[in-house]
Amino acid sequence: MKYKIHHHTVYHYAEPVRRSVHEVRLEPRSGPLQTVHRWQLSTPGNPSAARDGFGNIVHNFTVAGPTSTIAIEASGEVEVLPPHGDLDRDGHHAFCDVPPPGESRVSPLYFLGSTPLTTAPPEMQAFAAPFLTAGHDIPALLALAQGIAERVRYKPNTTDVGTSAAEAFSLGSGVCQDQAQVMVAACRALGIPARYVSGYFYDPAATEMASHAWADVSLDPEKEVWCSIDITHGCVTDERHVRLAVGRDYQSAAPVRGILEGGSGETLEVNVSITPLPAQD
């Protein structure tokens, strides 16, 4: 599948922002699961691009003067590649995410360490452990994902971007971000490297599109083999998923982060459109 994506974000402020510094992860990278054919990013100022230690494309920009509005626009075309690579006994695909020549990244083992957003309390560990007693092959991970989706029910407006995996697990509800962080936290607590993924999910029946989140779980850290699991939809990611960034948790993969001077009374407007493009011969 090939998609045309447009992501428009506008921050409005009742009190003008005197100065701000922003970090944006809104440009997908080509890799084993997708090819980026065209992409452009529009921000105030002059954004500078770099790669972080996870391989994400990161843009930084500064807004120097007083402003009541900050707009960020990203758009382009991404082709989700057909499944390839190793198949497990149930026909699920894993993928190898070795950095290209000249690029250095953290080891998959770095994703064993917990963060404040992905710390697993004893009750979460006890919940997750039975799913993985025989190992963490893809069917076992899918069973854990289904268990998490049932334990942390999808319910918008019950959490926010600062909600931790432990808080969402205790609350019993949340959104895709929370379900992904619980999956990541549970795997790490059981000695399995896992990383948070931000991106897009194409649903032709949806009236409004939004950002999405899921989890990568390492099947073989030494060979850098991963599987990518959508907890919300209970599946291995497929032609409906477009990846934006990976990180240790939401915070390190967030589409937009910023530090402001002034700028009280913030309101946020986000519009995402995803349009399938016709197949080419």
Your description of this structure?
The structure is a single chain. This protein is of the alpha+beta class and 281 residues long. The chain has one domain: C8orf32 fold (Roll), CATH 3.10.620. It is 16% helix and 42% strand. The protein contains five helices and 15 strands. The strands form three sheets. Strands 1, 2, 3, 4, 5, 14 and 15 form a seven-stranded antiparallel beta sheet that branches. Strands 6, 9, 10, 11, 12 and 13 form a six-stranded antiparallel beta sheet that branches. A two-stranded parallel ribbon has the order 7-8. The radius of gyration is 19 Å and the shape is globular. The model has no long low-confidence stretch (mean pLDDT 92).
Task: Give keywords.
six-stranded antiparallel beta sheet; C8orf32 fold; globular; 15 strands; 281 residues; 5 helices
